[in-house]
DNA sequence: ACCTATTTTTAGACTTATCTAAATATATTT
DNA sequence: AAATATATTTAGATAAGTCTAAAAATAGGT
């Protein structure tokens, strides 16, 4: 069907679209793929001819319905294999990514389905990322409060519940902004505070804060 | 390490070497790989530069120690994955080959070892082919009497126990010769006779016959 | 609106693995 | 041993995916 390289581009576009909630620029994609912008342009043209992406010169790129579906299937396989490696083969959650990068390209619908069944249709991979089902649906709620996340879960900051200027200024001061990745490193049971990772910095926040930040997971 | 294509060539050379107990010709390899002789020559040169094969122009090719080791590791992965698919994921033994052709190229020693352990260190794949261990040893006896094979097992005819001219003429008449593939299709418990497949022909032979033919498996 | 900086695309080249067609080496037959 | 047939290699071409360097388009600042 599609080459490894094509699938990797689709996956990267998928992640960037969701991260920035917008079309994806050539440069952003080049950075994500660790390659040169010129290579990205070449590949985008190819994907465009195959109707996997919508592309207008200089206007960035976004996934077509087919491209979206294809990307989700690759992500599904990646996360199922990660789950398999950790749950069945005694891998640690930090060792599985590179192997899953290889396994995600194996072509066999039956294999994916049987693996899913064998694993008991898991809803999240070892990193807390949701695993889409065979139809591509992420059954796990997509947008939730930061306070609802558990340890080691992560998401992208997509909104605020409290939009008072006091709260917003607090966010500015602490460099919390929409579009940023947030990961829960620790969670204190007794007061609901948590240690989060945001842009490579660790930050401890109270439950009042985490209760007012919307996080989009996956 | 090595590309999918390189690994596939090594595997093919391995099988042909054992089948004909000799160096492998360019044409034989082209047929096995379903490609053109000129493509084979190109690849052989590349493998030779990487010291995976011993090659002299017009003299055919054979695996170096490194090439042999590499081929066996690919075969090991192929057969472990086949076992996994049948034993854990409810595949039928006739559905697994193409998927294992993909999975055999996944690079991770730890994965291979953990998979082996998870499966209980199986000795044979679903087709009866022996699975080499991590050191590349085929623990299963290599040469055995045809009568010792079970249903669905197969091997290459490599010798006779009874070398009387009567027996040899019988073999000639029935087109059984050294180097030919033999597969056991059925085995009758009550008289030890078996139905075998040899060069796309089915043949029923008595236990007296199967007891005097050496088969090399794997 | 213009100039500059940044982003994106194009042009041409390289690598891997393949092909066809032609040339060369080896094997077989008479 | 020469002629013929077969096997193998070489030469040149193609497609996928990448690169560098140069050109073109867009965006930003005044």
Automatic annotation (TrEMBL), chains A, B:
In the presence of manganese, represses expression of mntH and mntS. Up-regulates expression of mntP. The keyword Transcription applies. Keywords: DNA-binding, Transcription, Transcription regulation. The keyword Nucleotide-binding does not apply. This is Transcriptional regulator MntR. SUPFAM superfamilies: Iron-dependent repressor protein, dimerization domain, Winged helix' DNA-binding domain. GO terms for molecular function: DNA binding; DNA-binding transcription factor activity; protein dimerization activity; transition metal ion binding. Residues 1-64 form the HTH dtxR-type domain. Belongs to the DtxR/MntR family. It comes from the Bacteria. Pfam families: Fe_dep_repr_C (PF02742), Fe_dep_repress (PF01325), FeoA (PF04023).
């Amino acid at each position: 069907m599609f080459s490894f390289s094509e699938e990797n581009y689709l996956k990267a576009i998928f992640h960037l679209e969701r991260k920035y909630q917008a079309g994806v620029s050539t440069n952003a994609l080049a950075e994500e793929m660790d390659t040169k912008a010129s290579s990205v342009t070449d590949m985008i043209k190819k994907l465009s001819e195959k109707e996997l992406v919508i592309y207008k010169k200089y206007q960035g790129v976004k996934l077509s319905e087919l491209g979206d579906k294809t990307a989700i299937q690759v992500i599904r396989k990646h996360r199922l294999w990660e789950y398999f490696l950790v749950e069945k083969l005694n891998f640690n959650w930090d060792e599985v990514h590179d192997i899953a990068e290889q396994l995600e390209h194996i072509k066999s619908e039956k294999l994916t389905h049987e693996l899913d069944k064998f694993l008991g249709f898991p809803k999240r991979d070892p990193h807390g990322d949701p695993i889409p089902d065979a139809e591509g649906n992420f059954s796990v709620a997509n947008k939730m409060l930061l306070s609802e996340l558990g340890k080691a879960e992560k998401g992208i900051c997509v909104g605020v519940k409290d939009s008072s200027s006091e709260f917003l200024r607090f966010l500015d001061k602490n460099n919390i902004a929409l579009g940023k990745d947030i990961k829960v490193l620790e969670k204190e049971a007794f007061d609901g505070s948590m240690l989060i990772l945001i842009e490579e910095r660790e930050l401890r926040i109270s439950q009042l804060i985490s209760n007012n930040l919307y996080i989009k997971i996956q």
